[in-house]
Every structure is written in C-alpha cells, then in structure tokens.
Prior knowledge:
Elements: H1 5-21, H2 30-36, E1 50-56, H3 62-73, E2 76-79, H4 80-89, H5 95-103, H6 110-123, E3 128-132, H7 138-147, E4 154-159, H8 162-170, H9 181-204, E5 208-212, H10 217-229, H11 232-235
Parallel strand pairs: 1-3, 1-4, 2-3, 4-5
Helix pairs in contact: 3-10, 4-5, 6-7, 8-9
The site of adenosine-5'-triphosphate has 16 residues, from helix 3, helix 8 and helix 10.
Amino acid sequence: MWRRVTLLSPMISSSSRSQAAFGLTARKSFATEIIxxxxxxxxxxxxxxxxxxxxxxxxSGKGTQCERIVETFGLTHLSAGDLLRREIALNTKNxxxxxxxxxxxxxxxxxxxxxxxxxxxxxxDSSKFLIDGFPRTEENRVAFERIVRADPDVVLFxxxxxxxxxxxxxxxxxxxxxxxxxxxxxxxxxxEALNRPVIEYYKNKGKLYTINxxxxxxxxxxxxxxxxxxxxxxxxxxxxNPKTSLVxx
Length: 249
Ligand SMILES: Nc1ncnc2c1ncn2[C@@H]1O[C@H](COP(=O)(O)OP(=O)(O)OP(=O)(O)O)[C@@H](O)[C@H]1O
Ligand SMILES: Nc1ccn([C@H]2C[C@H](O)[C@@H](COP(=O)(O)O)O2)c(=O)n1
C-alpha cells in the first residue's frame, strides 16, 4: 500500500480473502500496481501514513473537531459513519443491511467498514489520515490491523457525559435516521459495551489522548492543538497566515 514492501504480500492475501468473503469482484490490487509501476507511487506514499483514530460517544463532537483538525493540519478526514451512509445513499448491495443496522444503533460488520476505509486509504494521495468513528469495537480494531496492516500513531478520545451527548444529537437536525432518543439510547449502550475496551487498549499502548469534550468548540480544539503540534510529520502542513507568516491557531 505505502511502499512498505515487506508488508505488501500479507496485505494482498488478506485483502483478496476478504474481498472473496464479500463477493467483491477481483480487481488488480493497489499493492501490485505499486510494485509493477514505480512511477505511480506518489512521494507522499513513500513512508507509512500518519494515522489518527478519533473515538468518542455519539454526539461527543468528533466530526466537529475533525473539521478543525483538517483546517489546521491538512489531514485527510475519513468518517466511517459517512462512508457507511454513502453506501446507503448509493443503494449498494450492502446498503439496505447497513441502513437497518444504523437505524437500530448497531455496529456494521467490521469487514464491510474496513473495506470501505481501505479503499479510501489506497486511492488517496494523502499520507495523513484522520479516521473518525473507528474502531468502534475490538473486532473493528483487529480487522483493520489484519486487512490494512497499519497502526494508528494517535488515538483521540472525546470524553463527554451521556446527557450532553443526548442533547447534542437530538438538536443536530441533519435528518439522520439514528438521531432519535430510542436509537440514541441503544448507541450509548453499545458505546459503553464495545468502544470502552478499544479505548482501554490504546490507553495501555500509550497512544490515547483524552479530550474533555464539554464546552466551547474552540476551547476543546485548544486541547487538541498541542497533540498534533508535537508531531514532526504534521509541522510542514500547518496553516500559515500568508499575511503575517505566523502559524495560525
Ligand atoms: N462543543 C460543543 N458544544 C455544543 N455542541 C456541539 C459541540 N461540538 C459539537 N456540537 C454539536 O453537537 C452535534 C454533534 O456533533 P458531531 O456531529 O461533531 O458529533 P459526533 O461525535 O461526530 O457524532 P456522531 O458520532 O453521532 O456522528 C452537532 O450538531 C454539533 O454541531
Ligand atoms: N466503525 C463504525 C462506525 C459507524 N458505524 C455505524 C453505527 C453508527 O451508529 C453509525 C453512525 O456512525 P457515526 O456517524 O456516529 O460515526 O454508523 C459502524 O457500524 N461502525
């Protein structure tokens, strides 16, 4: 995928296996393209990508803060929820199943979500990704490691009390099928049961950054800023004000 050639062979085989499992038509793998056609490798793919996972309960403000991170550090935003909703909107073969699961506050099978993320990662020229709303479960996490063969550099956790999340979701007003009190209660239960172990996993690995997600959007972003500022890989892409030559934020 990213010229980590030692990792390519296992990635090809696990990728083909999971494609077969989902009945996807075999396509020339991206890894094969890289090996066969060196000129296609963009300079940004010469190194392993910088990956951030963004975790937090429903309505904790992940998407809102991702927008700010993208503006400031130029990461490419991949929202697992948005990718799944796109499948519903495009009425793909998994679309109806995904819709029913989301309506019921349930988690979509990991292979489906990971394949969607993998496709985006492979087709992007970027080398820095913000993967929002993923992994939601230990199964999601393990499937990503197995299929994509990459680990996150940073894991953000937006920590927000349940009642605040309920209030935000019910006021969101974007016409989402899961923004109602019945589904929200189910989502919160699933978050506690399935996402907490993932948060614990990354805490034990020393990769977790917990953000207090209550308060003003700008103030919350002030907690996020120093985390990304400390990574060399992101320094060159920080937004600089052309008039003052000062780094903004
Ligand atoms: N700090 C904040 N204070 C008040 N409202 C907020 C704050 N951050 C985000 N919101 C609002 O709360 C709602 C949920 O935010 P957002 O969509 O960013 O959450 P999310 O964690 O991505 O949710 P989901 O997991 O359900 O997609 C939105 O309407 C957003 O405008
Ligand atoms: N890794 C994921 C991410 C999302 N989903 C499903 C279930 C969620 O309730 C819904 C909405 O996601 P959000 O926009 O809140 O991130 O999408 C999933 O099954 N697996």
